[in-house]
Amino acid sequence: MKLLVFLCAVALANARRFHIPISERGTRFQETVEVGGGYRLAEVPAHNNRDHIRVLTSQRMGETMYCLPERGVCFLMATAQRGGEGQDGALETELTQLERTGLVAETDTVTVQNDWVVLEQNMDRSALSDPRMRRFHQDLPLHRVDKLTGGADFLTETSDADAAPASKRQLISGSCRNDAAPQRKYAATSPTGCGYGYEYLVYCAGQNSQYSDCPRYHVTDYFFMTCLCCPEHTAKEQCLYCTQLSCSGYYDNTGVC
């Protein structure tokens, strides 16, 4: 145990922290990026109706944990699905320059949208081999996600008055009209329908497999849950079944994400 604590302390001591000024739709804020010791940690404050996020990457595990402290939930994803930021040395050079030169504007970045679907809910953190990842916001539920590719069928979020719900017979039998087979569709995890549109900048120096010229890119992540729906269903309320995402609550610990 003493050796483990010592190794963690060394990793933290070797990390460098950068404060990058950002300008987005008239709002100015700082994104904090910590590099070193085998980890990358990015933190973005709440801004422009976007929530505060903290994103920790373990280079050894090849996994990234994406946490929303106030909303009370974390997501675990494969780092390779997000796109990398290059080697530590080159990245630190880029971040040092950005700290000195001033604001990074939206016009200086490439926009990227990632869509994620929850695969496994309420993961047991003891299964994570990296001690820092296990402790990162350990009081929050953790859900494993996978990146959605093209062709996914997304549902709208509507009120009960706007969507005809599935009939009681459909819900019991799991059947659709004309004996059609139910289909997998995806609904936003947020009750507002925005799907948790969380934004941050990723800085890249050198080349990687996803972006040949490796620009800075502005990422928005959306998180979805899986629903079983009939072909004609377009809204979550109409579907036969939808997974329900658990979290510790949005600000007030109500259990509502």
Automatic annotation (TrEMBL):
Keywords: Signal
Signal peptide: 1-15
Name the UniProt record assigns to this protein: BRICHOS domain-containing protein
